[in-house]
């Protein structure tokens, strides 16, 4: 495959924060990512890594050019045959049984290093002869390991889909473990996920937390309380986000809750109480103000990492979070309130506690916490991981 001319990096406005060491300047790199049809946390991580190698090709199952942000549009995109199947881009999770074969069909050019960004099958992309493979794991095959019940449990999918998923689950898990052996070095997005890598693949994973876009969310003056008076739930409407828990808790308290985002779990948005407002998909340009004017971000799910708590804290706002998963690595007792179990009672109790917490909350503490997760530090850590995987044993 012909490489894109370096001028493209300028055309699309790449903002490389950290310079590559001279020893890596001639390293040929290719990326792999599960799919490029949305702009969420995984795609933002890929973008921050891809800035380091602005002409590197990106392999993916399927992609939607309209969904790509400027940071990724300058890269050649290599897709699988699944990209040509009608409906695959809009209903991608329905094609899960075909994804292992599809990702194995992708042909990458001759490179020195493949960096996969994977929560599903991207780490199984065929590695060119002689290349090393660094895998940044957002989660081990999410739909077949820890998130299986969230996607295929009772009430989560049609009965036929649930039966098929249960039948395929052992084979998917076995395949996932086998393909992990082609990875030379694992990097996890959190200590939570590093533990999953150890449990599933029996491999060590370094931890490099995803970056928050500090410049987007830190540009305004900080205030002690959210001026809008509402609480905020924001992100993809996926089953494990437990939006239902937030809605039921606020139904009980009567406080205003705004929900921003889109996804497959829109059933939760039917028959909302009058104090809960569904905003739908909010333009990126409107997110900083949405965070800044909220009293707090509500984070009721178990996330592998979760970028929205950091975006909220970068905006000077606190977080009310379930005390498991990635939130335990990004939110502190000075910047948020935790609740110990995923129940309406526990979240309602946390909302009561928040009234006392808010009186002593300092927005600058939240911003300082978010600044620990800046892009410069992320890119330096990624460079260190690249140097490690390329160093002869």
Question: How many domains is the backbone divided into?
Answer: 2
CATH architecture of the largest domain: 3-Layer(aba) Sandwich
Strand order of the largest sheet: 3-2-1-4-5-6-7
Helix content: 25-40%
Q: Quote the average pLDDT.
A: 87
**Topology as H/E string?**
HEHEHEHEEHHEHEHEHEEHEHEHEHHH
The helix count comes to 15
What does this structure look like?
The protein is an alpha/beta fold and 393 residues long. The protein folds into 2 domains: 7-211 and 374-390, 3-Layer(aba) Sandwich (Rossmann fold), CATH 3.40.50; 214-371, 3-Layer(aba) Sandwich (Rossmann fold). It has helices at 7-11, 41-50, 70-73, 99-104, 148-152, 159-179, 191-201, 214-217, 243-253, 287-292, 308-314, 327-330, 344-360, 363-371, 375-390, and strands at 29-33, 58-60, 77-79, 113-118, 132-137, 185-188, 205-207, 230-234, 257-260, 276-280, 294-299, 319-322, 336-339. The chain has a 7-stranded parallel sheet, sandwiched between helices. Strands 10-9-8-11-12-13 form a 6-stranded parallel sheet, with helices on both faces. Strand 2, helix 3 and strand 3 (77-79) form a beta-alpha-beta unit. The protein starts with 6 loop residues before the first helix and ends with a helix. Mean pLDDT is 87; it is low at 1-16.
